[in-house]
Design brief:
722 residues; alpha+beta; 5-stranded antiparallel sheet; 4-stranded mixed sheet; Beta-lactam/transpept-like; glycosyltransferase; Membrane carboxypeptidase (Penicillin-binding protein)
């Protein structure tokens, strides 16, 4: 609401009117091309240096987030809803309309139209119609200075004060701009910063806000409506203000265009007769307003990632401001098809309003690019929604136990230590260990893990079938042989982050005694797990997860962020050997024919190409996990109750989790060339001959009785010796 004019402010206006009116009378006879020079040099003094914001506009613009196709808009971020467009992408009638409405002499003055200023001031002082008197160039100067984020709040406020000094400074800056820039450049800058009401800054935002179209497609009637709003945008806005007043103002602009000859009277009458047809389009702002369904959790991950990038500022606050005001174009790594499938599959298992959830993450091996972050939840702050990072972890989300999927880290540590895939062990139903334990799961005061299904798991096993059948006692034994600390270090090397304080303490201080680690008792997330398995799929190359393909600044330059950040953390041969064993759980065969049973046999039928993976069930089936991979994608899903770990999801859901992940993999590789895994060298295979089962011992027999001599014969013999 404008402040009432005080007697003092009216006095300043009268003084300014007198000053400028006298100036105009003194130079009215000068040619137009000398007028600007007179105003600057004679009246105001030379001025060579413009503020940086006027030389290089720092006006806030919204940033755009797109899917990896570069076309699917996910959302925008902004404090001020505006986006710059070049003049060539603005309809000619829009350019003509704004000149006719705000500055008919724009192409003839030198930045300050002193005749217009004096006329406006005299009209204002004498009680005539209120007139502005500012040229488009002067208005542009004012808009830049009042919105420059590098100026203080006091400096921005001073840019609109009704003072003689401010007006003279505005004239001076405008004149210098006219000396440095072409008229079209000034017009383009003005159209990109002017406020059109309803939260829309700049003609691109305004044409979308009111008509749902690009500014190049504006009609005469639409352009004149927008041009008319600039004088009083909040009052005239046909969405938030007075629609009738907007139409009256449109008529004024049409008359001005007719009077200046840029349109004919017939064109003006035809546009004036058009009904006001609006297509209000609200520009999404932030992750809670993502346009593409169910990408809010991915958007949230990207924002968290952004706030950690030094390229966007020294502090998180500066980086947040850069995202909301910097006008960046962000092509993310999200694949719309993979995301849609993952969301559909998560909701096939659990509905949106269920306490239990199935977060799913998909990662591209060799780049770390995140293709999907999906869950059966709505991202937001309303009832039944959440902003907790359920898929990636962070904040209050420490993660979920992933069960036997952690056996991969034991196998990798063993292979790296020189053991082979043929490493054999006669796995018992229960395995007494050296770790002290009490209660359930203990044997004589020692931790004594058991196989979940002794009939399928007990007996002599090598890495292939121990991994395929998920034999607990084999992997606990193997971890003891390798060293638990080596297994924990392997998991960390592949990107497993210990967010729970108790897990972090174990890893830092007691890793060598963390006996149950191989059974997946540490909390993790689908994203960490998918990326760890993606490292194996990429034959030992770990890549930091990244949510972007590219980030482009408003000037078209590419910001150096988001490129794959990768390093080798495993030898190719070790990764290939682990992959060969990981073919067993999913119903496929290793390169050496050693798979003889798996826990996720249906994956082979669903994916229909070379695939590997592992299931995992935590204690008493509190969570159920599956992670699978091909050379092109790794996908992990964990069924859990994020808010109540004691709420066990139950064993029967495992088959649904397996199918959900497998179908997501199938979508990710659809249309991609079929790629097989490379077999490991014989050095890591070892002697595949399994020991012959011991032959059964013969039935015990009674010893042969000693021969007895008949008594009569015995007496006869004795008599003869005698």
């Amino acid at each position: 609401m404008p402040r009432p004019r005080t007697p003092l402010s009216r006095l300043f206006t009268v003084l300014l009117a007198g000053l400028l009116a006298g100036l105009v009378l003194a130079v009215a006879a000068l040619p137009g091309n000398l007028l600007a020079g007179f105003a600057t040099k004679a009246a105001l003094g030379a001025y060579d240096d413009l503020p940086a914001a006027l030389r290089t506009p720092a006006t806030p613009q919204r940033s755009y987030l797109y899917a990896n196709d570069g076309r699917t808009l996910l959302t925008t971020f902004y404090d001020v809803n505006r986006s710059d467009v070049p003049l060539a992408e603005i309809a000619p009638v829009m350019r003509q309309a704004i000149v006719a409405a705000e500055d008919r002499r724009f192409y003839s003055h030198g930045g300050a139209d002193l005749r217009g200023i004096a006329r406006a001031l005299v009209a204002n002082v004498t009680g005539g119609d209120t007139q502005g008197g500012s040229t488009l160039t002067m208005q542009y100067v004012r808009n830049v200075l009042k919105s420059d984020p590098n100026r203080t709040a006091e400096e921005r406020q001073a840019a609109t004060e009704q003072t003689v000094g401010r007006k003279l400074q505005e004239i001076r800056y405008a004149t210098e701009l006219e000396n440095a820039l072409s008229k079209d450049e000034i017009l383009n800058r003005y159209l990109n910063i002017a406020y059109f009401g309803s939260g829309a800054y700049g003609v691109a935002a305004a044409s979308q806000r009111y008509f749902g179209k690009e500014p190049a497609a504006l009609t005469l009637g639409e352009a004149t409506l927008l041009a008319g709003l600039v004088q009083s945008p909040d009052e005239y806005s046909p969405i938030d203000g007075d629609a009738e007043a907007a139409l009256v103002r449109r008529g004024y602009v049409l008359d001005a265009m007719r009077d200046t000859g840029v349109i004919t009277p017939a064109q003006a009458d035809q546009a004036r007769a058009e009904k006001l047809t609006l297509r209000p389009t609200a520009q999404p702002n932030g992750c809670v307003a993502t346009r593409t369904a169910d990408t809010g959790f991915f958007c949230d991950y990207l924002r968290r990632w952004w706030l950690e990038q030094p390229a966007f500022g020294e502090t998180p606050q500066e980086r947040e401001q850069a995202l909301r005001r910097g006008g960046y174009t962000v092509v993310t790594s999200l694949d719309p098809d993979v995301q849609a499938t993952a969301v559909k599959e998560a909701r096939r298992v659990y509905a949106d309003d269920e306490a239990r959830a199935l977060p799913i993450a998909a990662v591209e091996p060799g780049t770390g690019r995140i293709l999907a972050l999906a869950v059966n939840r709505q991202y937001g702050v309303a009832d039944g929604q959440t902003v907790n990072p359920l898929i990636s972890g962070g904040g209050s989300i420490e993660g979920y136990q992933a069960g036997s999927t952690f056996k991969l880290f034991t196998m990798l540590a063993a292979l790296e230590s020189g053991r082979t895939l043929s490493t054999g062990f006669d796995a018992p139903s229960r395995l007494p260990t050296r770790y002290a334990a009490e209660g359930e799961g203990s044997c004589d005061g020692r931790w004594c893990p058991a196989n979940a299904n002794p009939e399928r798991m007990d007996g002599y096993r090598m890495m292939w079938d121990a991994f395929g059948r998920s034999v607990n006692t084999y992997f606990v034994w193997l971890a003891e042989q390798v060293g638990q600390d080596k297994v924990v270090e392997m998991a960390q090397r592949l990107g497993i982050t210990f967010r729970a304080e108790s897990d972090a303490n174990f890893a830092a201080n007691d890793a060598a005694d963390w006996g149950a680690f191989t059974l997946g008792v540490a909390a993790t997330t689908p994203l960490d797990l998918a990326n760890a398995y993606a490292t194996v799929a990429a034959e030992g190359t770990y890549c930091t997860p990244t949510p972007v393909e590219s980030v482009t600044a408003p000037d078209g330059t590419r910001v150096p962020v988001g490129d794959p950040d990768c390093e080798r953390v495993l030898s190719q041969d070790v990764a290939r050997a682990a992959t060969d064993a990981a073919r067993c759980p999913v119903g496929q065969q290793s390169a050496f024919g050693q798979c003889n049973g798996g826990t996720a046999g249906g994956v082979d039928r669903i994916v229909g190409r070379p695939v590997a993976g592992k299931t995992g069930s935590s204690e008493k089936n509190a969570t159920e996990t599956f992670v699978g991979f091909t050379p092109q994608v790794a996908v992990a899903g964990i069924a859990a109750n994020p808010d109540d770990p004691s709420d066990a999801v139950g064993g029967p859901v495992q088959s649904q989790v397996i199918a959900a992940v497998a179908r997501t993999i199938r979508t990710a590789v659809d249309g991609e060339p079929v790629r097989d895994f490379t077999a490991p060298s014989r050095a890591l295979v070892g002697d595949m001959r399994r020991p012959e089962p011991p032959r059964p011992s013969p039935e015990p027999t009674e010893p042969a009785p000693e021969p007895r001599i008949p008594p009569d014969l015995l007496r006869w013999l004795q008599n003869r010796r005698g």
